[in-house]
Write a structure and sequence with these properties.
Two copies of one chain form a homodimer. In chain A, a hairpin with a 5-residue loop joins β4 and β5. Helices cover 45% and strands 16% of the residues of chain A. In chain A, α11 crosses α12. Chain A has an eight-stranded antiparallel sheet with strand order 2-3-4-5-1-8-10-9, with helices on one face. A two-stranded antiparallel sheet of chain A has the order 6-7. Chain A is α+β, with helices and mostly antiparallel strands and 352 residues long. At the A-B interface, α8 of A face α8 of B.
Chain lengths: 352, 352
């Protein structure tokens, strides 16, 4: 099943939406069962009992159809890392085994992790800025489940969660933004500070604790309590549109005042990616970010953003290893990564 | 005259010799006139008198035929810098004006600076390792001059010079070496230390006080006293051959043990030079050094070393300015340099 799944571009790379600055949108809900200990307190047997109970329930939901499910104990480490790189499971989940699992729609846009930090972590994501849409899908999934199991819920606090920061709506809405303009103009810090001040978190590409690489940033709400879900979502969408304006503005100023620096940045990215024989994951992301910017600003022709976005995914460690059919040492990954990118770019016609 | 001169590749770029590791050889002699103050002590008038006396004498020498001569006061700063980049005058000489000048053969391989630190600084250079040959030419020039003017000479010390470090033979023999193999293997320091221990100086591309860029190093004798000229020259040539062996050995080990690092190094150099829009002088030298190595080791095809060596010269600040017909700010030079290299490399077919 996974084999088949990994052949397709993942949810946040699906074409269609305008993905220039807003790469993808994601909403997750934290939910727990009434009268069961949170996964961190429950033993392995209790967790396994919950997973075995939820797996068939989730697998038959209309919202997830057609679905697939995998227990973490059934998935090799190898493939767990791929699920992580596709944003289907969290970093924490890659360390889990028996008693936890994933049920997801086959298009990877909607999914439920069982027994990560909470009994249920529901997720809906898609490319582009689509928070309000995916909230509706999420809401439907949540209702379907609530009709079948009893959630831990307090009339005063709302949904109860393992970590107090999620209590209330249990909702986290996040948007992945590509902000090379602000980065090149050295204006990321004030923007990030402003976002933090109004209660939003700014994180790197793979969420909490990950470094910002490739000028990709996740913006998400910190507060989950005291407001309706629709308002939280609408509020973030509003703020994201403002950040997009900032980025647009930074790009315009780059083109106007520092065109040469910009062309140099994009040209070097193309030159190195097309000719290097060793590329670390971080460097590849940073340089692919340069190509992405060049494409958006039309100073790099003959390359489409989708091809670059595919490389963003395929050049990640687990995807590379899957491609080679074996675990690779970091040095070997750097070689294989450079080879993959060099070959793919040679197939395109780029000029800068 | 200078205009015409600058059209030709300069002495240290002349093809023919094997210039892979030994780029060029150079010998200079310091000589002073009897009964005249050293240039640093003589006033401008005294210097001018000496220049006016020596200019016609030098211009008629068989060794310099066909020759040209320029007084530093007649040469714009612009062109003085070009003479410097072609190694025809020293950095110190670019600051001089009335009372000093240059008489040189039109092929630029043999020349005499008048009133730099000494009354006469004679120089002979050519591409490849040719110290013994150029010493013969130099000796002939020296004899021709000595037949016409009286040198300051002490039977005990030998030729007298403004700086005591040159007293005796007044000879400095130097060889420009391209040592990217030792640099990439991190073995430059022990080699340089060894050379210093046996009385040789190791310097950057443009001599004393200049930084090593492009992995180009000048090796020269420090001691000018107490040995015959032929011995000094033969001794250096011997040592250079040993350094060449070290470099050859380092390159072989690179190819054997770190081929990927090597291919990456050369590939990136090609990629950046072919696509950058801003290149500093230092970066250009370093990257062109990478191409040079790739050509020598046959991992870069379709590009010849001579084309790269021409770029080494043409991408220098003064040559760039001459090309543009005006003085340029550093930022503009970086743009023009990148443009020149990008265009020239696009004309070649390189693969890595």
């Amino acid at each position: 099943m996974l084999e088949e799944l990994f052949q397709q571009p993942c949810a946040w790379l699906q074409p269609g939406a305008d993905t220039g600055t807003v790469v993808s949108s994601r909403i997750r809900l934290a939910r727990n069962l009434k009268d069961a200990a949170f996964p961190g307190w429950a033993g392995e047997e209790e967790c396994e009992r919950i997973w075995q109970k939820l797996r068939p329930v989730l697998s038959e939901l209309k919202s997830l159809e057609p679905s697939f499910s995998v227990g973490m104990a059934e998935v090799e480490e190898f493939d767990r890392l791929i699920l992580f790189e596709r944003h289907l499971i969290s970093g924490e989940m890659t360390q889990r085994g028996r008693g936890s699992g994933l049920v997801a729609g086959r298009d990877e846009t909607i999914s439920a992790m069982v027994n990560e930090e909470d009994h249920l972590r529901l997720q809906c994501m898609s490319s582009g800025l689509t928070l309000q849409n995916i909230w509706k899908r999420m809401d439907a999934l949540d209702s379907e489940i609530e009709a079948r199991v009893r959630y831990a819920f307090s009339p005063r606090l709302g949904y109860l969660t393992a970590c107090p920061t999620n209590v209330g709506t249990g909702l986290r809405a996040s948007v992945m933004l590509h902000l090379p303009g602000l980065a090149l103009m050295n204006e990321l810090n004030p923007v990030a500070k402003g976002l933090t001040k109004i209660g939003l978190a700014v994180r790197g590409l793979w969420g909490e604790g990950t470094e910002a690489a490739g000028n990709m940033f996740q913006i998400s709400n910190q507060i989950t309590l005291g407001d309706r879900e629709e308002n939280i979502v609408r509020n973030i969408e509003q703020i994201v549109l403002e950040v997009v304006e900032h980025e647009k503005n930074a790009r315009a100023r780059l083109l106007e005042k520092r065109e040469l620096v910009l062309r140099d940045h994009v040209g070097r990215a193309w030159g190195i990616l097309s000719h290097a024989h060793l590329l670390s994951s971080k460097e590849a992301l940073d340089l692919l970010s340069g190509l992405r910017l060049g494409i958006d600003l039309r100073i790099l022709s003959g390359v489409d953003r989708q091809a670059v976005d595919r490389l963003l995914l395929l050049s990640q460690p687990a995807h590379l290893q899957r491609r080679e059919g074996k675990m690779l040492k970091p040095k070997d990954r750097d070689r294989v990564r450079a080879e993959l990118i060099r070959t793919q770019l040679a197939g395109l016609r780029g000029s800068s």
